[in-house]
Design goal:
The protein is of the alpha+beta class. The protein has a single domain (3-144), classed as Alpha-D-Glucose-1,6-Bisphosphate, Chain A, domain 4 (2-Layer Sandwich). The chain is built from three helices and seven strands, in the order βααββββββα. The chain is globular and about 45 Å long. The mean pLDDT is 95. This is SRPBCC family protein.
Length: 145
């Protein structure tokens, strides 16, 4: 089962970064590839079991379900229910940890999934570079603005 892992140090305190990132539907406000996003069935975006339905600019729609959420650990885990990507069994976790020196935090974002071997290089680019790494860069930038 492939695993994609991306980490970043963000120059802001974990509480400030989490205040933005904790909203499971808030990625539409800071992530550069998200065209639009809604939480289905009127649930709150921090409710385990809620489903976000969102569009990716030029790449279709996804539905993802929140499977765990922790303000204490500054983390959440979600799974893909529907996607145009050639993968199955996708489970991802987003987590922030305070950096003990300075007002910074350490971000981690990883996913495990199944796919055909020939699809893995493209998925590493799409998920690792274009989603996780680009997301961390945009999140950090949104906190500077």
């Amino acid at each position: 089962m492939p695993r994609i892992y991306v980490s970043a140090v963000i120059d802001a305190p974990v509480e400030r970064v989490w205040a933005t990132a904790r909203d499971f539907n808030g990625h539409r406000d800071w992530h550069p590839v998200i065209a639009d996003s809604t939480i289905e069935d009127g649930l709150r975006s921090d409710t385990v079991g809620c489903v976000r339905n969102f569009g990716i600019k030029g790449a279709g729609r996804l539905r993802e379900q929140l499977v765990s959420f922790s303000d204490r650990d500054h983390s959440y885990t979600y799974t893909i229910l529907e996607s145009p990507l050639p993968l199955t069994g996708y489970v991802a976790t987003f987590r922030l940890t305070p950096v003990t020196e300075g007002n910074r935090c350490f971000g981690e974002w990883w996913a495990e999934f199944d796919c055909a071997p020939e699809d893995l290089p493209g998925l590493r680019e799409q998920v690792g570079r274009n989603t996780f790494a680009a997301g961390f860069e945009a999140l950090a930038r949104s906190l500077r603005d």
